[in-house]
Design brief:
The complex is a heterodimer. By secondary structure, chain A is mostly helical. Chain A has helices spanning 20-30, 32-59, 70-75, 101-137, 139-153, 157-168, 173-187, 190-203, 207-214, 219-230, 232-255, 267-276, 283-310. The radius of gyration of chain A is 24 Å and the shape is globular. Chain B is mainly α. Chain B is built from 12 helices and no strands. Chain B has helices at residues 2-29, 43-52, 59-72, 86-121, 126-140, 143-155, 174-200, 203-210, 215-227, 229-252, 258-268, 271-299. In chain B, helix 4 runs antiparallel to helix 5 and helix 5 crosses helix 7 (174-200). The chains are: A mainly alpha, B mainly alpha. The A-B interface holds A 151, 153-160, 162-164, 166-168, 244, 248, 251-252, 255-256, 258, 268, 271-272, 274-275, 278-279, 282, 285-286, 289-290, 292-294, 296-297, 300-301, 304, 314, 316-317 and B 15, 19, 22-23, 26-27, 30, 124, 136-137, 139-142, 144-145, 148-149, 151-152, 156, 194, 237, 240, 243-244, 247-248, 251-252, 262-263, 266-267, 269, 274, 277-278, 281-282, 285-286, 289.
Chain lengths: 318, 305
């Protein structure tokens, strides 16, 4: 990363320079909404990671345990049979099959967050590679590459993703997850490519790049070592905002029954189950739904906070 | 400008054919087909059916015929709804989706533009924070949570509005429209706010104020024109999103629109119907994008074709 330490003559007491990163971090910390959102996201990640084992140890329930054993059912005193009931044992009640909803919501959180993160990484890699190449090569190549992006913008992606998932959807939950990562990642890289290209174009004529090229560094290495790290700020901001939008897409697909397959669950598929019984057991929709909304809200606030911190133009305080 | 429009229209056909080809390729590469279902047909019947629909010909003949159909705007006969042409399904489903999407976007503009403008004028004050917080909530609550919650509350508890189904324009459309528009209200309010903040700092606004125009005329006559540009360029992708967003909303409210047919066609492996809907959607998106680009040039005199 570029740390801009001012050259000083008095070498025994160097002036501590502030980098773009430490400045930005300072501004994020001053933004209370962003800090609170960071805490919420961290809490959600922690809960979805350590929650299910805790529930399993303390109550014996897991996300896919359907209580059929009568002795087991009776041993949990306030349980009022399958169909959903609230008790201290089931803080979110149970689902239609008698499974503990809290355990399912936490598992859904694991999967939804994982899909959001990995698909964003896929789009990050694709978009950065593509945009950096276009911006660095410039001229004809740039024009052709970006025209392709313009063309791709006008394609009804979700339709193609729906076709892909409906026809190639696999019965193995794991293969289905991988398919989801790839499908969602390849849908959301276009804007990333544009952002990276813009950054690279503004950077590539600066002296440090010229110096690297004069030293005989190969183009690939110039892109990877010198241009991409310096373009990272806006990319990270955009990636943070991509996570909630990808999670929303995944939830849509799972809601339609094309995403995560049973017995696994994501917030979208839990909501789809909940909608079936909304008139009788509304919490089966509201619990996963509100959990998801709160998480997305926190991620969106965090992304906005990061953007304000990195982009001096749109800063709120004068 | 006429040359610009002509050039764009010329690109439309190859692009639609490319999208359709990708879709067709995906369908054909996938294992299984329309006839591999839970209950396999007797071989003789399947052979006859395949012959009837031309599915016994080599793949390149079928592909060529499919492209020819798309070019002529006649997508053939649905496999699932036997005897019904894809075109007649489209002509019954498109008005439903168009009414829903159009009303939702209109509602989003009607709420989003005033909210965003107000937020920009009162930057960093209470109205700004309030409308931006509302916008953030609109961005974060998925439609499949908002929609059923509204149904639960307004239709199943208070009995004010009908919960679902399509019965033409009227009360049945209220809940789906509100559900679908929420996220667009949020997007538009945020875009207008950012655009107006940028414009309100510019020199021509200072000039307008200096010559003594009343503030409302500065806002509506001068600033709004520039502030609307981001919304305009958002409208292209938004309409594409609207078409996919309706899939979920149509599903929740059991509306017989394009999205609902599309999902069912995929689950049934109804190839002609899938191809028809994809082709129709692509053409719509391309034409709407062109309209947006032309309108952009009319609003912003700096743009040259």
């Amino acid at each position: 990363m570029r740390t801009e330490t001012r050259p000083t003559a008095a070498a025994d007491e160097p002036i501590q320079g502030t980098s773009l990163w430490s400045d930005a971090w300072k501004r994020v910390r001053r933004n209370r909404a962003a800090v609170a959102s960071l805490a919420v996201v961290a809490a959600m990640v922690a809960a979805s990671l350590i929650g299910p084992p805790i529930i399993e140890v303390s109550t014996g329930y897991t996300y896919d345990l359907i209580p059929t054993d009568r002795a087991l059912v009776r041993s949990f005193a306030p349980f009022r049979g399958p169909g959903g009931s609230w008790s201290a044992l089931h803080p979110m009640g149970t689902d239609i099959a008698g499974r503990d909803l809290l355990a399912r919501v936490l598992l859904g959180g694991r999967i939804s967050l994982m899909v959001g993160l990995i698909s964003t990484l896929v789009s990050l890699v694709l978009g950065t590679a593509y945009g950096a190449t276009a911006g660095y090569l410039g001229g004809r190549a740039d024009e052709v590459l970006m025209r392709i992006v313009d063309v791709l913008y006008a394609i009804p992606y979700m339709m193609i993703v729906i076709v892909l998932l409906a026809f190639f959807g696999s019965r193995s939950p794991l293969a289905q997850l991988v398919l989801l990562f790839v499908a969602l990642g390849s849908v959301s890289w276009l804007t990333m490519a544009r952002i990276v290209r813009g950054q690279v174009i503004s950077l590539k004529n600066q002296e440090f790049v010229l110096a690297a090229r004069a030293n005989g560094v190969r183009p690939v290495a110039v892109i990877a070592r010198h241009l991409v790290p310096n373009a990272l700020g806006p990319v990270i901001v955009y990636a943070t905002l991509t996570i909630p939008s990808v999670m929303l897409l995944e939830a849509f697909l799972s809601f339609l029954g094309l995403g995560v397959q049973a017995p696994l669950a994501s917030w979208g598929s839990l909501a789809a189950d909940g909608v079936q019984t909304i008139a009788v057991f509304p919490w089966q929709l509201l619990c996963p739904g509100i959990t998801m909304a709160v998480t997305l809200l926190a991620l969106n606030f965090l992304g906005d906070g990061l953007r304000d911190a990195f982009d001096p133009r749109g800063r709120r305080s004068p | 400008m006429r040359r610009f429009i002509l050039r764009r229209l010329l690109v439309t056909l190859p692009m639609v054919l490319a999208v359709v080809s990708i879709t067709w390729g995906l369908i054909r590469l996938a294992p299984g087909n329309f006839y591999t279902g839970e209950k396999p047909l007797p071989p003789a019947i399947e052979r006859n059916l395949r012959e009837k629909y031309g599915l016994d010909r080599p793949w390149y003949v079928q592909y060529g015929r499919m492209l020819g159909n798309v070019v002529q705007g006649d997508f053939g006969v649905s496999l699932r709804y036997a005897g019904t042409s894809v075109n007649s399904i489209l002509s019954s489903a498109v008005p439903v989706s168009a009414a829903l999407g159009g009303l939702a976007y209109l509602l989003a503009l009607l709420i989003g533009i005033p909210a965003g403008t107000f937020a920009a004028v009162r930057q960093n004050a209470a109205p700004d924070h309030l409308s931006m917080a509302m916008a953030m909530i609109g961005l974060s609550v998925p439609s499949f949570v908002l929609g059923p919650t509204l149904v639960l509350w307004l239709a199943l508890t208070w009995f004010v509005l009908p919960p679902a189904r399509w019965e033409g324009f009227g009360a049945h459309l209220v809940l789906p429209t509100v559900t679908l528009s929420a996220i667009y209200v949020a997007y538009i309010a945020r875009l207008i706010r950012a655009g107006m903040l940028e414009v309100l700092r510019s020199n021509y606004i200072r000039t307008a104020r200096a010559k003594g125009l009343p503030e409302w005329r500065v806002l509506l006559g001068h600033a709004m024109r520039g502030g609307l540009l981001p919304v305009l360029s958002f409208s292209g992708p938004a309409l594409a999103m609207l078409l996919t967003g309706t899939v979920v909303v149509e599903r929740i409210f059991a509306l017989p629109g394009l999205g609902n047919y599309f999902i069912n066609a995929n689950l049934n492996r109804d190839e002609p119907l899938i191809i028809g809907i994809v082709a129709f959607t692509s053409i719509t998106i391309l034409v709407l994008n062109l309209v947006v680009d032309v309108a952009y040039g009319l609003l912003d005199p700096r743009v040259r074709y």
